[in-house]
């Protein structure tokens, strides 16, 4: 499969759809009903509580929604990496890697607030990677701020991704206080509008924000999950080494884009530490940037049998976790 997705063939868009469906078939056979978590913000809670009376009787709908989110995220992130030329040639390995690693654990195949905001965070990364030499940086930063503000309506700890704006500006542009202020105003805008509406409707004092809670997160429930985590980390680290080895061949903007992916990963790994509830599903935030490095692991080795073998080992792990370890 790695050979198939190495090619920049438009038919691979459909192949990814089939590939993902096969990997996640178990979650269609045994659909999971999402549960409201303590860290979930008011908008996600409102949406979920609205649809649950209808969809709980047809849990397959949740599986369809979840897969559509995962598939569209894989395709959009794959397209963005190709457009930014983060690898030597366009391919479909990032999308394949994302669908593959998100199939490792059941918690990553259930509808959740972190899964929903992954779509928004992919857009945020895309806009941040366009800041270099952007003549309309202020409007872009304001829009980025608004989207990050909206993510907190689904999952409040995602406010930590506002750190990406600060460091993205340090990486991509000369420091300008005005641009930082504009980004902060963007983050505050959705909350300003929300509080204005709550005030006008006399609901301000009854509104509650989920907030932060610094604690040690849940890394894994059993040894099998630790094996999966190790597989992901090893392939991502080796992929990162390939990125570093090829950095000199890349233009400045591409290197900065890779720096933003590293920043994205660091913040995503930090977020589970500020949750008010312990759940493995929050680590799905890190799967987007990890899939970029894992794609490089599958792309760069000259001995093709190595990434091919590891790919099938990872597929075997997916089958084991979905069927045997269920």
UniProtKB/TrEMBL annotation:
The chain crosses the membrane at residues 12-29, 61-77, 98-126, 146-170, 177-200, 226-245, 257-274, 280-300, 305-324. Pfam families: DUF6427 (PF19992). Coiled coil: none annotated. Keywords: Membrane, Transmembrane, Transmembrane helix. The keyword Membrane applies. This is Uncharacterized protein.
């Amino acid at each position: 499969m790695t050979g198939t997705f190495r090619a920049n063939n438009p038919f691979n868009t459909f192949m990814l759809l089939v590939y993902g469906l096969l990997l996640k078939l178990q979650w269609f056979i045994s659909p999971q009903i999402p549960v409201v978590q303590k860290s979930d913000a008011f908008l996600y809670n409102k949406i979920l509580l609205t649809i649950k009376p209808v969809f709980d009787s047809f849990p397959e709908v949740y599986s369809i929604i979840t897969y559509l989110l995962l598939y569209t995220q894989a395709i959009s992130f794959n397209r963005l990496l190709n457009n930014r030329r983060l690898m030597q040639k366009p391919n479909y390995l990032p999308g394949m890697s994302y669908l593959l690693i998100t199939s490792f654990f059941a918690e990553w195949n259930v509808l959740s607030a972190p899964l929903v905001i992954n779509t928004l965070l992919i857009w945020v990364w895309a806009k941040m990677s366009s800041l270099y030499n952007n003549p309309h940086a202020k409007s872009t930063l304001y829009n980025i701020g608004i989207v990050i503000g909206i993510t907190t309506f689904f999952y409040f700890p995602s406010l930590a991704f506002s750190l990406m704006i600060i460091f993205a500006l340090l990486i991509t542009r000369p420091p300008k206080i005005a641009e930082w202020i504009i980004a902060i105003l963007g983050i505050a805008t959705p909350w300003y509008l929300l509080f204005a509406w709550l005030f006008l409707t006399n609901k301000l004092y009854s509104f509650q924000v989920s907030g932060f809670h610094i604690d040690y997160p849940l890394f894994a429930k059993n040894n099998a999950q630790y094996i999966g985590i190790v597989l992901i980390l090893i392939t991502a680290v080796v992929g990162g080494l390939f990125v570093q080895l090829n950095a000199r061949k890349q233009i400045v903007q591409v290197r900065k884009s890779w720096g933003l992916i590293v920043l994205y990963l660091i913040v995503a790994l930090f977020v589970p530490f500020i949750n008010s509830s312990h759940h493995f599903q929050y680590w799905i935030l890190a799967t987007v940037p990890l899939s970029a490095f894992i794609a490089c692991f599958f792309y760069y080795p000259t001995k093709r049998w190595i990434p091919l073998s590891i790919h099938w080992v990872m597929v075997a792990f997916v089958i084991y976790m979905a069927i045997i370890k269920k």
